[in-house]
Amino acid sequence: MSGRCIELDLLASPGCWAEVREVRQRVKRLMASYDEDVQDAAVMTASELLENALKYGVAIEGASAARFEMHLDEGALTIATTNIVDSDAEGAALRARIEHIMREPDKEALYLQRLQDFMDTSTVAGGLGLYRVAFEGAFDLQCATGNKMVVVTARRAVP
């Protein structure tokens, strides 16, 4: 199983959420020969990253709102999204959050603490999906930013 991939650009529109559903189905089909837990992790990760790119990205007339890429090569699955943000500071904040998640050796404790934050404080908003990707999906996350562009990459070994 080498060289299988999905690459597409999504426009910001009311119909883009139906496209996210289609991406989930395509990921599931591409991962069909893998164990169900690997399939579920891939679908969840693709969905979380793409939804974040669309929700937090900035739409520019005539340009895609988000780019989605998934590459499945021998032993590795890589899922990446690219989108534009309002400011480089916004991208830097996302990069810092991802670096914090990846530095934490106990992803489960970090995920549970984030859930607790949601229950304790009504002002906590967003960010749970990245914790799910790292803990439930067992993906390593990276974030590259610059010129108001954000690229979030999730990678994990697949048996």
Strand order of the largest sheet: 1-2-3-5-4
**Overall structural domain count:** 1
CATH class: Alpha Beta
The general outline is globular
Task: Determine Rg (CA atoms, Å).
Answer: 15 Å
Sheet having the most strands: 5 strands, antiparallel
Q: In DSSP terms, counting alpha (H) and pi (I) runs of 4 or more, how many helices?
A: 5
Low-confidence stretches: none
Distance between the termini: 11 Å
Q: Judging by the overall fold, what is the CATH architecture?
A: 2-Layer Sandwich
Please count the beta strands (DSSP E, at least 2 residues each): 5
- Secondary-structure-based class equals alpha+beta
The averaged pLDDT comes out at: 90
Protein described:
This is Histidine kinase/HSP90-like ATPase domain-containing protein. It comes from Pendulispora brunnea. There is one protein chain. This protein has helices at residues 16-30, 36-56, 88-103, 107-120, 128-135, and strands at 4-10, 66-73, 76-84, 140-146, 149-157. By secondary structure, it is an alpha+beta fold. It has one domain: Heat Shock Protein 90 (2-Layer Sandwich). Strands 1-2-3-5-4 form a 5-stranded antiparallel β-sheet. Helix 1 (16-30) packs antiparallel against helix 2, helix 2 (36-56) packs antiparallel against helix 5 (128-135) and helix 4 packs antiparallel against helix 5 (128-135). The model has no long low-confidence stretch (mean pLDDT 90).
